[in-house]
Design brief:
Layout lengths: L1 H33 L4 H29 L3 H20 L3 H33 L3 H26 L5 H15 L14 H8 L2 H30 L4 H20 L1 H4 L5 H21 L3 H7 L2 H20 L5 H30 L2 H35 L1
Helix pairs in contact: 1-4, 1-5, 1-6, 1-8, 1-9, 2-4, 2-14, 3-4, 3-6, 4-14, 5-9, 8-14, 8-15, 9-12, 9-13, 11-13, 11-15, 14-15
Subcellular location: Cell inner membrane
Protein name: Transporter YwbF
GO molecular function: lactose binding; lactose:proton symporter activity
């Protein structure tokens, strides 16, 4: 029972942080449109988040490994989230929004990765499925997307800061009760981090994975605008996110049952193929209702892909560098992929519309699945050669 009690603050942190995250992901493009920005400018603002993440995630991950604490780094980042969000939402004009946005994302972008890194380690320590912890993030995301969507449809998009601050404060309160990680080794040094960069399978996997994760991030950024382009409203955007993340929560919750049957890379490749099919179908759709109906595929794509990729990465990196390695994975998944997805997506949706954007995303995901299949085949062959020696 003590084990479950010690996990409750972590589950509540994931719940409340992902509830804030859904507000930014689902409604920031619509909020920026309300502020008078066009599709390309919105793409620039959305690209600032991943740009900050590339700097912030390895930095905070390194600080976490160096000082052997995830809890205290999380507390610093959540206080930063609350203060910088107030400033960010006061800004008008593209340059001011970009500058304030960089500071805001510098504090917010590592929280998900640090929370997941802590969750992965606690799951290993207590011998429970990581998915049963991570599912609370998806539940927070789903509930927030549904409730906040309805509130903003009635009140107006300009009031999105208030639900954001509510869930952010909740995240801060529960963080004080987190159980921290115990790492019995010397503090990590900068030269240790170079071992990660020289880890060829790890870096290759991150590169090939990007062809798929870029499409995921582009859709995250522009699905709200695509739904409104097709005639939907904020409430419908909220329902789309709710269905998607509810299916993701189910995948996370039951991951322990199906996850060990095949190699984790098989699940990564499988979800890449489904991503590709999903985007090609979205490209052909003319009624937003069909997008809502197909949002259950989000669980099969993101849910399966994220769990399998994180599990695979955890096996590739040494225990001493878990936070740094996890946040490097996060920096590629949500950082570099996010920049490419936001800039490319903003330009495509502005010039050619949402249908063309999703057709390009389908092609990129298919390429990623193909590259990872080749990578998996070569990895197995190399292992076989080593065993025969």
């Amino acid at each position: 029972m003590a084990n479950n009690q010690s996990l409750t603050p972590l589950k509540m942190l994931l719940f409340s942080f992902h509830a804030t995250n859904t507000i930014i992901l689902s409604y920031l493009p619509l909020y920026l449109e309300y502020k008078g920005l066009n599709g390309t400018e919105i793409g620039w603002v959305l690209a600032v988040g991943p740009l900050a993440a590339i700097v912030a995630q390895p930095f905070w991950g390194y600080m976490s490994d160096k000082y052997k604490t995830v809890k205290h780094i999380l507390l610093i980042c959540i206080v930063g989230l609350l203060v910088s969000s107030v400033v960010f939402f006061q800004m008008d004009g593209l340059i001011a929004i970009l500058l304030a946005g960089f500071v805001f994302y510098f504090f917010t972008s590592p929280i998900g990765g640090l929370g997941d890194s802590l969750g992965q380690r606690r799951a290993d320590d207590l011998n429970v499925s990581f998915g049963t912890i991570r599912t609370w993030g998806s539940i927070g995301f789903a509930i927030s997307s549904l409730i906040v969507g309805q509130i903003l449809t009635v009140a107006g998009i300009q009031y999105m800061i208030w639900p954001y601050l509510f869930f952010g404060t909740m995240a801060l309160i529960v963080s004080f009760r987190l159980s921290d990680v115990n790492v019995e080794s010397d503090p990590v040094q900068l030269q240790d981090v170079q071992k990660l960069i020289r880890n060829k399978p790890f870096m290759l996997f991150l590169f090939f994975m990007m062809f798929i994760t870029m499409t995921h991030r582009a859709s995250d950024s522009f699905i709200g605008l695509y739904i409104t382009q097709l005639g939907g409203n904020e409430g419908l955007v909220g329902v789309a996110w709710f269905i998607g993340v509810a299916s993701e929560a189910l995948v996370f919750a039951f991951a322990g049952r199906w996850f060990r049957k095949y190699h984790t890379l098989v699940f990564v490749i499988f979800s890449g193929i489904i991503y590709s099919l999903r985007w090609f179908i979205y490209a052909a759709i003319e009624d937003p209702t069909y997008i809502i109906m197909l949002q259950f595929l989000h669980g099969i794509t993101f849910g399966v892909f994220y769990l399998a990729a994180l599990d695979y990465v955890t096996r590739l990196i040494p225990k001493l560098l878990q936070s740094t390695g996890h946040l490097l994975f996060y920096a590629v998944f949500f950082g570099i992929s996010g920049i490419i997805g936001s800039l490319l997506g903003g330009a495509l949706i502005d010039s050619y519309g949402g249908g063309a954007l999703y057709a390009v995303l389908g092609g990129s995901a298919a390429a990623g699945a193909l590259f990872l299949t080749v990578y998996h085949t070569l990895t197995i062959r190399k292992k076989g050669q080593h065993q025969n020696l």
